[in-house]
Amino acid sequence: MKPLKPYIGTALLLMIAASGCNNDLTEKIYSEVTEDTYNYSNAYQAMSIGYATMRGLISHTHWYMAQESTADGIVMPANASGWDDGGIYKRMHLHTWNSENPQISSMWNTFYSGVINANRLIDQLSNNKITIPAGVTQEALISEMRTVRAFFYWMICDNFGEAPLITDRSEELPEKTGRKEIYQFIVKELTESIPNLSEERNTLLYARFNKWAAKTLLANVYLNAGIYAGDTKWEECLTQCNDVIASGKYQLETSLSAPFVTENQNSAEIVFAIPFEENLAGGFSAHMFSWHASLKNKVNMLATPWGAGSAKGVPQFINTYDADDQRLKATWMTGPQFAADGVTPLKGSYDQAGKNVVLTNELPDGLYTGEAQGYRMNKFEVKTQAQGSLGNDFPVFRYAQVLMMKAECLLRTGKASDAATVVSQVRARAFATKPAKATVTGADLQKGSSYQYGYVENYKVVDPGNAAAVQYGRMLDELGWEFAWEGFRRRDMIRFGVYTTKSWLSHKPTGAFRAVFPIPQIAINSNPKLKQNPDYN
C-alpha cells in the first residue's frame, strides 16, 4: 500500500434561510470556521498542502514538459490526430514562446501557490495555530516548510530568474527581486533548516523533505550557482552529495525500471518524490500525451491515450545511445507494437489507417509528423488496466542524480578520473550484458558531445548549426541517457552552454534571453510593479 496521500480541507458550514413569502435572502450562519478559530489537530495534514501543490507540476502544459520539450531530447509536434492547439507546443520547441503560453502561466501560478501555502504554514506553525505532534519539535516542522518554500523558489529562480521574493503574508503588491538575491535566499533557508530536519528515511517521511532530500535540493542549487549567481559552487555541491552518499540511506537499484514502476514508493533509489495515485491524487499522464491511441490495447488500459500522441524522442538524441545501452529500450518504446497477447499487431487510424503501428526513429521535422513516427515514453510503467492518471510517484531526486552531480563536480574541478569512476558505477546496470562498455575514462568525459546538432529538414541535418565542441559534452550525454523523461534536460543544457546556442530538429537559436521564461502577461497586468524579463516584448 502507498503512504496516505496529502490532502487538506477546511469545513465552512453555511445554511441559508429564504422565506417564500418575503423573499428574504439574508444568510444565516450557523457555524463558521476561520483561521483564528481553527486549530489543526494533525500537523502533517496541515502541512500536506505544501507538498500536494507539487503535483500540478507534472503535466504536458506545465513545468514537466516545459523542461523537456524546450530541450533537445523530446519534442511535441502536431500530427493527423491534432496536437497543434494554437501552436503552444510548437513554440516551446522553436523557442518562440511568449508571455501568454499556458505552460508559462501554469508554472508561475503553481510555484507561487507553493510559496504562499508555505508562508501561511510557517506563520501558523510559528504562532501555535497548528498542534505539534509528540516526538517532533516546532522548529523541525517550521524548517521543513522553509525547505518546501525553498524548493518552490528554486523552481522560480531556475525558470524565471528575477521574480518577487515573498516571505510573509503581506497583501501589498510585490516588486521583482534579482536572481542572485533569490539564489542567496534559497541557500540561506536551506543551510539554516537542514540541521533541524530528520535523518530518518521511513514511511512517515516519504515524499517529504528529510535532511538528505534537503541536501540533495541544496546540491542542485549549488550545481547551477554559476547560472543563478555568476559564481560556481562545485566544491559546495560536492560536499552535499558526499553527505547524502555517506548517510547510507539510499542506493542504486539493480534494475533500471525499479524507480519508475507503479508501486515505486519503496525504491531504495528515490530520495524525494511527488506522490501520485490514479484515483485520489491524479495528474501524472505521460502515457496519455505520448502514446498512440492504439497502445491502449497493449496493456488493456481503461482510458484511451490522446490521439496519435505527441511527446516523442528527437532522433538526433536517440542516435547518441550505444546500441548495447539498455536504457534505450527502458526509456523509449520502439518498433512494432502488439496487443496484450503479444501477437496481435496494433493498427493505425489516422494517416495510416489499418496499417500496423511500427514506431520509427524518424521525424521529418519538429512541427508535423506521421502518427507512428518517433519513439514514445517507456520509462514509467503503464500497468495493466491503467487509467488516464498513473499511480507511479514522480522521482524529483534519485540517488543516481546524487552520484552524477558528484561526478560532474569532480570533472569540473580537475578530477576527471575520479569522475569517471562514479559515472561508470551509474552505467553498470545499463550495460549488464556488456559490462566492459560500462567503464568510461576521465579522457572520455572530457570529450565533446556525440549529439549531431543541426537544423533538420526532410529527415536530414541540413544546417550544422554551431559546430563548436561542447565542453565536457560527453558528461552532458551521460546525463541525457540517464535522466530522459525526468525533467532535467533544459537545466542541464543551460549549464553546459548549449540550450540557446545549438540547433536541433526544427529549433534554431533565438537568443540567450531564452534561458529564462517571460513573466506571464496576466501577472504583469495584475501587478503594475512587475516588469517583464529582458528582451521579451
Automatic annotation (TrEMBL):
Keyword annotations of the record: Cell outer membrane, Membrane, Signal
Chief localization: membrane
Domain of life: Bacteria
Domain RagB/SusD, first and last residues per copy: 315-536
Annotated localization: Cell outer membrane
One matching Pfam family: SusD_RagB
Keyword Membrane: yes
Listed InterPro entries: SusD-like_N (IPR033985), SusD_RagB_dom (IPR012944), TPR-like_helical_dom_sf (IPR011990)
Protein name as catalogued: Membrane protein
PROSITE patterns in the cross-refs: PROKAR_LIPOPROTEIN (PS51257)
